[in-house]
Description:
This protein is α+β, with helices and mostly antiparallel strands. It contains 13 helices and 21 strands. Helix content is 25%, strand content 25%. The strands form four sheets. A seven-stranded mixed beta sheet has the order 6-5-4-3-2-1-12. Strands 7-8-9-10-11 form a five-stranded mixed beta sheet, with helices on one face. Strands 13-14-15-17-16 form a five-stranded mixed beta sheet.
Amino acid sequence: MRVTVIGCSGSFPGPDSPASSYLVQAEGFAMLLDMGNGAVGSLHRFHDILDIDAILLSHLHPDHCLDLTVYWIARTYCPDGPAPRIPVYGPTGTAEHMVKAYEPEPNPAMTQTFDFQDLRPGPVRIGPFTVTTTLVNHPVEAYGIRVEHEGRAVTYSGDTGVSDALVELARDSDVFLCEAAFLQGRDLPPTCTSPAARRASTPRARASAPSSSPTCCRGTTPRRRSPRPRRAAFAAPSSSPRSGSPTISAPAPPPASRPSDPPSHGRQGIRVVAMARPDDRAPDQLRPVRVQRGWLDHAEGSVLIEFGGTRVLCAASVQDSVPRWRRDSGLGWVTAEYAMLPRATNTRNDRESVRGRIGGRTHEISRLIGRSVRACVDFKALGENTVQLDCDVLQADGGTRTAAITGAYIALADAVGWMREKGLVRHDPFITSVAAVSVGVVDGEARLDLCYEEDGAADTDMNVVCTGDGRFVEVQGTAEGAPFDRAELDALLDLAAGGCAELTRLQAEALGQ
């Protein structure tokens, strides 16, 4: 489970942040907690704004809900036609409140775009999440929200003063998002819209949450004055993220060191040490890689490739033609499509064809696979033929795109072998091979080929595509926690290059080369 701070400015947007909004993701499902002023604009920076599956509104004050009116425009009038209808959970009367705020003419009540559902105290299942809400202190109907997934919990206070209900809701949470705008010392009522910083710490302390990430909302307090009183109140480490603070991941228990393995230090800022991983691999060790060629009877090339628990079926289909823009050029073409089966993860996800649109993540990975594999092909030697690569994730445990690229090359090689037998190509069109692997920093340790559990907890996450001779095709790197420096980047690239070299060897072995 991952939480991204879209906005955390209290009462009104600040110079660094929209008002309250948080993106919670797991298993490809994206849910927004609140949509305060300016949230939609900031959301563009982190996620496809149309690829949202559900919205929860803690209460109906504008700094927590008003951008739903803007979001209605985005989903209703997008160039490709209206986006699929999604649920919006909120206090009683949310639909009427939002229609009144926007006053559309003629009035469609927004129900073609949003399936409005009233929140009630208690649990509800939303996608892969169990969401529990409770009424909290506020001048209007307002809810605290707890989101749970696979034994982890994130609690969001919404806008409230201290209450026993919030204490119980936050108990044993891994992350507590507690908005606090005013300094200690203001004469504020218990239902104050933004609790005093010291008050905000109380539920966390009383609820014994093991980790806390309270957001300090700056809209009503000068930035230079707010941090010190709030920090003094928290025994656990706390933070005051701005919009775009890298994601907050519900922390996993720290792995135990294996004293028999002495640490070896990598580049500045990254420790390359032998620490226990979920599958007990060394930091620079790939997961077990298995390759089964000829997995499909009808495809010109096919392979089932496994990176540990990740399994991807790659099929190559040959057409003796090229796209219209490529005709009479003497050049061939290679393209790719990526998809994830509904039960590739531990809960079912709807097929994107049923949702009515392909998600942004699917488009991105499809293009990545196509770019990667095209880097190893001489299109003139391929002739005016097209090879379509279909990469379908049967089971996902992290690294699905890197497994797809590595397997797609093998499927393409088999398809080219078929083309040579049929006389469609005369010369070997391969310039080199291509493989891909993930790397990241987890608990301060540089690791190769991250599984799902590690990917969700990574401070830095990177996907690296290399040719067989060690050149880079693409590097996708993100600081999920603290930014990384040039030395850390070099260390991760060195680790990835070594992993790709081993994958290249395994590809050649599978192809009998």
